[in-house]
Amino acid sequence: MWAVTRAVLLLYVFKVLTVPGGMDITSDVSVIYHGWFDRLSAGTFPSGDVTWQYPPAAALVILSPGLLTGLGLLSYASAFFVLACVADAVVFGLLLYAVRQRGARDPEAGSRSPAGVWAWVVGVPLLGPTAYARYDLMVTALAVAALLAAARHPRTAGVLAGVGALVKVWPVLLLLGTPRGRATRVVWLSALVTAVAVTAGFAAAMPGALDFLSAQGGRGTEVESVSSLVLHAARQFGWEGQVLLRYGSMEFVGPGVRTVSHVAVVLTGAGFGWLVLWRWRARAAAWTPATPADTALAAVLVFVVTSRVLSPQYLVWLVGLAAVCLTLRAGRQTLAAWLVVAAAGLTQLEFPVWFADVVASEGKGVLVLALRNVLLVAAAVTACVQLWRSTVPRAAGGTRPSPSLRPGGTPRGAGNGSPSLRPGGAPTSHDVPAAREPQQGASPPRNPAEVTAPTAGSHRHASGR
């Protein structure tokens, strides 16, 4: 299934088959990326180009087709498409390895499910040939590798997340879900050291490495973003705005657009604040091997649905994270993950099939865009609710989240107020409260019912949160 669907994608990007809608979705590679390649090969970043808005390690991806073009067998665009397919295969292989080679049960990484493999096999072709005509597959491969390595190799996970963040920023959100304590220190420090070292290397070797930090300030509201639905609706009532090609994407320009963009920025800040609050409130004992992936999907969804820009290739990130969540059986994001896969299919309809209607705010294009964005918002809300419920203790009287298991199946916190069990399941003698001998002169209880046993609340108080 993977080979057949990817062969079809390659036929589209190599223009053997015609993309529905008649758009040339490969121009970003053949024109923009190729132009960047020439500038980067000369030793400078294309900082004067408004379409260059990426961290310095993105240069490695843009330059990588040169490994194949140097042989004289492929053009730049053809080499890029081949490498995109290789990155796709790497994600597919990582997910298969996670399911098959680790076995049905890995005490440290959690039990695995093939559902994630199928989500990747189906999700990428649902998005269409756009997946191979942008460089997001490469950074998604880094993110998937980081999440799958997190449980057993935290230092490697940190390095991969650090490199990924320097390719396209969003993998920095993978750090939010690391378990508290030593694991967080190892992952975060590895990511920080990697990011600083790589950035310093680029800054020393090539001018303009840090210009991307100010490149996003002038961005407006892209026609495919969630917030753009307000402007699409306003157009139906005579709003005088228009759509122009700016910063490499189609953006709304006109009265009120700046307000919509500012609201989107505020919502992004609020989303980040919620994620910080979640991490502060979450119980360390509630962490499972799937919590880093669950958190990553929720965090990236929050930032995607609140962003002023929502390009179709962003769905590649979400499909990759959804696939990891579905691979880990302990995960709580099943519904959100499949909503993302469904949204990928609708994304191909709004771009490129009916993109002309989207730009004109007309008919089926806007309807499909609205449905896609509703699915993404629903996925974001579902992911955040599930993340909160699975890790944050409820108020008194509510059901508390089940504790995560140590390798071997022992509940965390055992021995801290919880009765320990013999192999046969009976409490050990020192866990059973001994009956006190009546003090001399004290009258014995009048009936056995007056001898009270410790309440469940006393054990809860002793064990702590």
Number of helical regions = 17
Mean pLDDT over the residues: 85
Distance between the termini: 47 Å
Shape verdict: globular
Q: How much of the polypeptide forms β-strand, as a percent range?
A: under 5%
Helix/strand order: HHHHHHHHHEHEEHHHHHHH
Helix share bin: 40-55%
How are strands sequenced across the largest beta sheet?
A: 1-3-2
| Cα Rg | 26 Å
Give the beta-strand count: 3
Structural class: mainly alpha
Q: Sheet bearing the most strands, described?
A: 3 strands, antiparallel
Give the low-pLDDT segments. 397-465
Description of the structure:
The structure is a single chain. This protein is 54% helix and 3% strand. It has 465 residues and is an all-alpha fold. Residues 397-465 have low confidence and may be disordered. The protein has helices at residues 2-13, 27-41, 58-63, 66-69, 76-100, 115-127, 136-149, 154-168, 182-205, 228-235, 257-281, 291-306, 314-327, 334-353, 355-359, 363-391, 456-463; strands spanning 221-222, 242-246, 249-253.
Sequence-ordered SSE layout with sheet pairings:
Elements: H1 2-13, H2 27-41, H3 58-63, H4 66-69, H5 76-100, H6 115-127, H7 136-149, H8 154-168, H9 182-205, E1 221-222, H10 228-235, E2 242-246, E3 249-253, H11 257-281, H12 291-306, H13 314-327, H14 334-353, H15 355-359, H16 363-391, H17 456-463
Antiparallel strand pairs: 1-3, 2-3
Helix pairs in contact: 1-5, 5-6, 5-7, 5-13, 6-13, 6-14, 7-8, 7-13, 8-9, 11-12, 12-13, 12-16, 13-14, 14-16
Short summary:
The chain has 17 helices and 3 strands. It is globular.
